[in-house]
Amino acid sequence: MDLRHLRYFVTVAEEGHITRAAERLGIQQPPLSQQIRALETELGVQLFRRKPRGVELTDAARALLGDARRILGDVDGALAKVRRTARGEQGRIVVGFTSSAPFHPFVPKVLRVFRDGHPRVSMVLEEGGTADLVAALREERLDAAFIRSPVPDGEGVAVHALLREPMCAALPAGHALVRRTRGRTLRLADLALEAFVLYRRVSGPGLYDAIFRACHDAGFVPRIEQEAPRIVATLNLVASGLGVSIVPRSLSAMRLPGIAFRPLARATHLTAPIGLACRTVDHSAAARNFVSVVRRKAREEGRGGS
Amino acid sequence: MDLRHLRYFVTVAEEGHITRAAERLGIQQPPLSQQIRALETELGVQLFRRKPRGVELTDAARALLGDARRILGDVDGALAKVRRTARGEQGRIVVGFTSSAPFHPFVPKVLRVFRDGHPRVSMVLEEGGTADLVAALREERLDAAFIRSPVPDGEGVAVHALLREPMCAALPAGHALVRRTRGRTLRLADLALEAFVLYRRVSGPGLYDAIFRACHDAGFVPRIEQEAPRIVATLNLVASGLGVSIVPRSLSAMRLPGIAFRPLARATHLTAPIGLACRTVDHSAAARNFVSVVRRKAREEGRGGS
DNA sequence: CCATATCATATGTTTTTGATATGTATAATG
DNA sequence: CATTATACATATCAAAAACATATGATATGG
Lengths: 306, 306
Fold this sequence. Notes:
Two copies of one chain form a homodimer.
Chain A: H1 3-15, H2 18-25, H3 29-43, E1 48-51, E2 54-57, H4 59-87, E3 90-97, H5 106-117, E4 120-127, H6 130-138, E5 144-147, E6 157-172, H7 176-180, E7 195-199, H8 205-217, E8 223-228, H9 231-239, E9 245-248, E10 259-263, E11 271-279, H10 285-305
Parallel strand pairs in A: 3-4, 3-5, 7-8
Antiparallel strand pairs in A: 1-2, 5-11, 6-9, 6-10, 6-11
Helix pairs in contact in A: 1-2, 1-4, 5-10
The structure holds a DNA duplex.
């Protein structure tokens, strides 16, 4: 059996005429007669009754016609689908997040942009620590991940810097500094004597080290009172009055009760990056498309926002 | 595109291995490599990543694999269906009836036998007068018809005699003869003076003429009071007391109120035939099967019943 | 670093497909 | 009723496709 046989058969059945069908198929009549006969022989079934003015379908042919049409249509559909998948217009991608990433408006925005541009690509979102995300990326359980670390590069995984956002101080609502700084920025030195709550270095060394360095530049060594596994947990600890913290500014959108956010003075140069981790060679076209959409959007954002 | 390509593709995808797939397909490895490459070129899509220990499916290949399997299965299914149709195990037949035929138990019985033996053949039943049935047969709107006429043969339509059943007299319930013949047979001569209700000669000349001839043999010319379009209508007229009639015995199973049936004396040799009309050359295997089942069953019945 | 496994390439052979020329049968036509 | 036209079948040849064999390239694993 061969798709050619089905195509020839359908055309002959539609024309009721071998010669005309051959014309439509762009071949000569004798080969078409032969192919039809070959099909009949293979099936062991007569498909057409040869009349002096054309051919007539048998019951068997009528039974086959519908199926043949459907099969040919299915084949076309399948091929189109493969091409779409290869172009990345169809498929599935799994996107990972560091817990704090989705708070920055850029992330949900770019997800929506991609979804609108690739409606046949289904997206699965997954939260996790930076290390887990990178491992998952390497094991192909993930196609890309929004992370905050600037440099867990290497071994098949690359991180594209997308944008940086200022950080801000998170203070317990009743703290003395809250009143004193109402409507003003805070200098890092103001926090020199405070207890700090930071999220664990292993979970994301990038931010941790950056904060440490900034404090050092401001002339003090932060007293780390407590570490939390995630940024959100950090905020909860701050809310319970265990200390102050420094977090990406987008977190302030949370409006947690018991927490007051204060911008930091510009001079600190303390910013939190958002990066997109992905495989250096990625076989999934959908994933490649996703990465390029995100990076392009980030560049546009950078121009528009600065 | 070619079914061979799909078959090769599915095998390679399942084995993850061109060499092993070639083995399973009964061909050598180089042609298989070529065919896969040709398929990729035609699609403009890479389907496999060649690794030193086999090949790996791309997203596109995974997308195609399901469709390819389904299509190959559909093709097999379609071919099987064509063969079944050609053998008459699948399809549709339209069977006609003269209105009185289904009263004889043979008819429903043989229909059930055929249905049990050919579960994939759907049957459509159609009632009509003998002339209509034969015309429909000729125009291929019908595949076979149970009729009572012995001889509307000719022009592509043949009638196979199936069996004969005795006829009986149908009398209005209050008629004097009913009481006089309780538990006995009736001789035709007893009806010499009665008014007759017969169904129209044009609707079925066979029975009409047979009855006329039998009366003639019994020494009288029946007085036809009324004609009805169908046998069932005839009985209704008898029930209203318009006259007596002579009908196939199987009609007595109706147990109409107002009608008494009386067997006729054997000597009358008045029997009603049941025949099966069909085309002399029939292209539908299902129809041919139906005719042969009915005829075989009739022969068995004839042996068993006599 | 060598042996092994696996896919790719090159080249020749076989099979399949299609084209041309011709034959045959049936319906339409004068 | 003979003739013509139409359409399918058959025969033969040419072209293309598929396959086989031999060999090369490459990466893995001991």
